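Troubleshooting log. The previous structure file for this entry was overwritten by mistake, so regenerating from the original sequence record. Sequence copied from the archived sheet and checked twice against the printout by T.R.
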Amino acid sequence: MHYTTYLFDFDYTLADSSRGIVMCFQSVLRSHQYLNVSDEAVKRTIGKTLEESFSILTGVTDPAQLAEFRQEYRKEADIHMNANTVLFPDTLSTLKALKKKGYRIGIISTKYRFRILDFLHPFLPEHFLDIVVGGEDVQQPKPSPEGIRFALSHLNSRPEETLYVGDSTVDAETARNAGVDFAGILNGTTTADELSVYPHRTIMNNLSELIEGIN
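Regenerated output below.
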């Protein structure tokens, strides 16, 4: 399969922001006396919206309370997130190799776009990425196909020439819903067995395997 467009999830796909995410969640949870939520439980919710994650971790379903949690999390993230995020070792080399071959490259994430761009600014030239779609850019978060479809429209790319790369079952569902091929990456907490339940072109241990698969 020859792809012209490569779209990526961010957390646990291009970068490990789990330390920052756990710090922010635990700060908010502790302030509301949720003292027994493990770091591992937090990590298992990465990729979901903040409201979904807080609901899973606390059992709270009230939209107003979940919105309050999200606002408190965002304040913590403004301080702690990017300082506690690191790129995976082969992220930059993979992105640059794809760019050198003339492919379109984008990011589709539930994370805020401004935070992704702030983090990547020191590592990539300006306008290197063809599109970044963050949580503030869509009405419906993943697994809704809205973000991918917006990117395809903006890039003038067809679904059949697009590969979406992500680490979670939410990412796999998103690709399926958008009608694009999916490649799983085992950088996060989701296992190959969990990802393989969904339609996929490949499941990789490292991003660099993308380049090895291109002629």
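DSSP finds ten helices and eight strands in the chain. Archived copy saved in two places this time.
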